[in-house]
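Usage example:
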Amino acid sequence: MIRASSVNTALEIIGDRWTLAILHQALLGIHGFEIFQRELKIPRSTLSSRLSHLVKFNILSRTSSPDPDQRYDYRLTATGIDLFDTALLALAWQKRWVGIPYQAALIHRNSDHVIDPVMICEHCQDPVKAHDVSFHPGPGASRVERSRKRRRRSSSAAPQSDILPISEELLDLLGDRWTPQVVALGFFGIRRFDDMQETLGLASNILTDRLKRAVKMKLFTQHVYQTRPARKEYRLTEKGLDLYPMLVALTQWVDRWWPTPGGPPLLLKHTPCGNQLRGIVICETCQVPVKPGDSRLTDSAA
Ligand SMILES: [Zn+2]
Ligand SMILES: [Zn+2]
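Running the assembly step on the lines above writes:
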């Protein structure tokens, strides 16, 4: 059930550093091949393959460019634009925990406030917190075939942008096929190495490496639960727990656009109100859902 969760599917699609960096630029309004190339300093063949990948999943559409210097334009489709919520939550998490100052900020509508996104439950309007959500298998739980497709290796080069930058840390976290899935286990109460390995079906060296990374990023702390032989379990820190709304947004995105036949593999219940969880992302200041067209960039720091 957990293995089949939609986080897995999402990472099949976007769990790659360059893919994330391209999506980030696309959300900021960039759509020409040459501009992507220049902004990201990405090898042309790599850019080409990542763009094709995003076109294949219908996140970008490719059209002939009116600009004589460009062959094609790559624009976000409705599916791509629908990642806006997830991106807002990811950047807000980064702002809280990684501390990159915004050199530009997203201003809400024609107001004077910076968007502070928060996920609330659609039913009771309470902010969504990890410990307020329980889970059980959904109707599609047995139908998801685990993809065995190998992911290409992540590039170590660091794409960077001057505006609303993505930190290395966020790229390390989300631009990887496995790290978010290992972190997500914490939300299911799976804390021990053997249980993690069994749940994800991961080679032990990969799991060891990702746990090491997650501890280094202070997403997990290690606790000894047995001394002879020594055994440790991994518990989410506040920083790790705070990733929860973003992972929910990502999961909802997958379930909207690539629904599992028969229904979602995993159902989440918001325990304070007892309803199936549907998170919506609102601006904390004016308490209305944030839409991609509702924001503008400013040069002033947040
Ligand atoms: Zn609720
Ligand atoms: Zn607002």
